From TrEMBL:
GO terms for biological process: coenzyme A biosynthetic process. NCBIfam families: dephospho-CoA kinase. It holds the Pfam family CoaE. This is COASY synthase. InterPro entries: Depp_CoAkinase, P-loop_NTPase, Rossmann-like_a/b/a_fold. The keyword ATP-binding applies. It comes from Pelecanoides urinatrix (Common diving petrel). Keywords: ATP-binding, Nucleotide-binding. GO terms for molecular function: ATP binding; dephospho-CoA kinase activity.
């Protein structure tokens, strides 16, 4: 059920740790380490197996193995259940047992190696773009980066600024979509404008062709300002 790939330990690393453990326990031990490409592996096809080590949480898997073995005409395996060691230092979001997932979760967000130096990239300012749907966490991440010293540029605020009277896109938008988009005080009624363009690809492109270049210019101005502030 893990969907965050960073929490899954690489197969090669797991094999190395397992081999080290087995050699620690008994150097003369004979063993095979095989990758599992399905939930069962060789446990349901190998006639030489006699025992399966399970834990309380994997016992049902062991029972499923025996059911499949009987279907394949093989004898059941003895299920030897072991207790899992508890992690006294686990956090609320981590598993109670000692788990590689928990250990790797603690590494998330830590710098594992220095950033790659690319001579083709300007040394500063380093620009990060945050995108995502409503409620995806853009504001929260921006605040965290701001606390770390980042200069924040809010594209939503710039989007509003281009429309205000005297703003860089105001005259062009009014000329393109007519005086009926204006409130009594001369400001652009964004709801009326929105009703004109959304659902109409041609009108929407006309609007974005006016607004987006102006927003991009304002962003570049703010990046230069960030550079000047160091």
């Amino acid at each position: 059920d893990k969907v965050l790939a960073e929490l899954i330990e690489p197969y090669e690393l797991r094999v190395a740790k397992l081999r080290e453990f087995l050699e620690d326990v008994k150097p003369s031990l004979r063993y095979d380490i095989v990758p599992l490409i399905d939930p069962y592996g060789p446990s349901v096809t190998d006639p030489d197996l006699q025992c399966l080590v399970v834990s309380e949480e994997t016992r049902r898997g062991g029972e499923a193995v025996n059911k499949r073995r009987l279907e394949n005409g093989l004898p059941e395996l003895a299920l030897y259940e072991i207790l899992l060691m508890k992690d006294p230092d686990h956090s609320q979001n981590e598993e109670e047992k000692i788990s590689s997932s928990s250990l790797r979760q603690r590494l998330l967000g830590m710098l594992l190696r220095p950033p790659r130096q690319d001579p083709a990239l300007p040394s500063r300012p380093y620009v990060i773009g945050l995108t995502g749907g409503t409620g995806s966490g853009k504001t929260s991440i921006a605040k965290l980066l701001g606390h770390l010293g980042a200069f924040l540029i809010d594209a939503d605020k710039l989007g509003h600024a281009v429309y205000v009277p005297g703003g860089p896109a105001y005259e062009q938008v009014v000329a393109a979509f007519g005086a009926e988009i204006l409130n009594e005080d001369g400001t652009i009624n964004r709801k009326v404008l929105g009703a004109k363009v959304f659902g109409n690809q041609e009108r929407l492109k006309s609007l974005t062709d006016i607004v987006w270049p102006e927003m991009a210019r304002m962003v570049k101005e703010q990046i230069r300002e960030a550079d000047a502030q160091g």
